[in-house]
Amino acid sequence: MSDQPARRADLRIDLGAIRHNVEVLSQRADGARTMVIVKSDGYGHGAPAVARAALSAGADSIGAASLQEALQLRAAGIDAPLLCWLYSRDDDFGPALDAGIELSASSKAVLHRIAGTAAERGVVARVHLKIDTGLCRSGCPADLWPELVEEAAKLRADGQVEVVAVWSHLACADELDHPSIDQQAARFQRAYEQARAVGLDPIRHLANSAAVLTRPDLHFELVRPGIAVYGLDPVPQHGDHGLVPAMTFRSSVALTKRVVAGESVSYGHSWTADRPVNLALVPVGYADGVPRTLSGRMSVWLGGRRRPVVGRVCMDQLVVLCDDDEVAEGDEVVLFGPGDRGEPTAAEWADEIGTIHYEIVTGMYRPRVTRTVVGEAS
Ligand SMILES: *Cc1c(COP(=O)(O)O)cnc(C)c1O
C-alpha cells in the first residue's frame, strides 16, 4: 500500500479484491448466474471498473438502479446484459431500449410505457417483472400482480416484450432466520407460479449478498450481490466468508508539531494535552467523507501502528496524537482499509457511529477525493 506516495485524499480501489469476491460469491451461488450490482457508482468504488473486473471474474450480468447509471455503463463500454429498475415519470425509455438495457416493471403503466417505446423504436423490450413480496418499496403489490402478468403475456404474444424474469427484493436477509425471509420466499413462489400459469417462462432472482451467503435455497437461477462484491460482509455473525474489502482511504501527514502540556486541539478545544506530545496534521476532514461524529472516537494507521485522532474532525483537517514518536511530513496515513495490517475498516467506522458500512463506502467519493485503481481488471 505504500507503493505510491499517498495523495491528499485518495481512495485506492483494488480490482484484484473485486475479482476475488466475485469468485467467492459465484462459488457460493453454485450454478446460479451472478448479476453484480454497481448502483451508486459501484458503491463508491467506480462502476465501470468494478463491472469490468466482475465480468472478467465470471459475473454474467450487471445491475444498476437508475436509467442514467445504466446508460453511463453502456457509454463506458460495458456491453454485458444490464438491468435497471428505478425511474421517474419523465424518464424516456428510448435510449435504454436502443442500448439493449433490460428494464424492470412494477406496474401495468410502466410496462405499457416500456412496450410503447419499444414499438416506436422497433425493438423488443427485455423486461423483468418485479413483485413486492413484503419490502413495500418498489414492486407490484400481490393483488395487482395477476393483471400485470396477464398484460405481460399479451404484450409478449404481440412481440413487444420478452419477459426475462420475475424478481423481488428481501427486507431482512441480513438477520439470520428472520421470519420475513420465508414469508417473502413463499409469496415469491406464488407470484412465479402465477406468471407460469399465464404462459410466461421467466427465470427468478431474489437473493442479495446476505441471501447469497446464507440462503442457498433462495438462489434460484440468478443472484444479485452488491455489498459483498466490494468485500464488505453483510452477515459477519454467520462466519468468515473470506471477502476482501476493495477500498482503502489514504492520506499523508501534511505537518508535524510538538505542543506543550495544556495546549488544546481543534475547534471547541475538546482535547487537551496533559504532557508534551507530537501531533500530526492530516489534511482530510468531513468534506472528504470522514464523519464528524467520529471526533474523539477514531484512530488511523500511521507509522506502523494505530494512533488516535484527537479533537474535532474539521471540514478539511484532523489531528493525530503521536506521543513521542517521530512521524514525518509525507508519511502515509491509512484512514480505513481491508484491516489486514491492523488499520481501521469501513465496518468499524459504521459500527462506531451507528450506521452500516454500505453508507460509509458509498459516501466516500466526492469531487475533491481522488480514486486510484490498482490490480488487473481481467
Ligand atoms: C442494492 C440491491 C441489491 C444488492 O444488495 P446488497 O445487500 O448490497 O447485496 C440487490 N438488488 C437490489 C434490487 C438492490 O437494490
TrEMBL record:
It is an enzyme of class 5 (isomerase). Pathway: Amino-acid biosynthesis; D-alanine biosynthesis; D-alanine from L-alanine: step 1/1. Coiled coil: none annotated. It comes from the Bacteria. The modification N6-(pyridoxal phosphate)lysine is found at K39. Keywords: Isomerase, Pyridoxal phosphate. Catalyzes the interconversion of L-alanine and D-alanine. May also act on other amino acids. HAMAP family: Ala_racemase (MF_01201). Belongs to the alanine racemase family. This is Alanine racemase. It comes from Saccharopolyspora taberi. The lineage of its organism: Bacteria, Bacillati, Actinomycetota, Actinomycetes, Pseudonocardiales. The gene is alr.
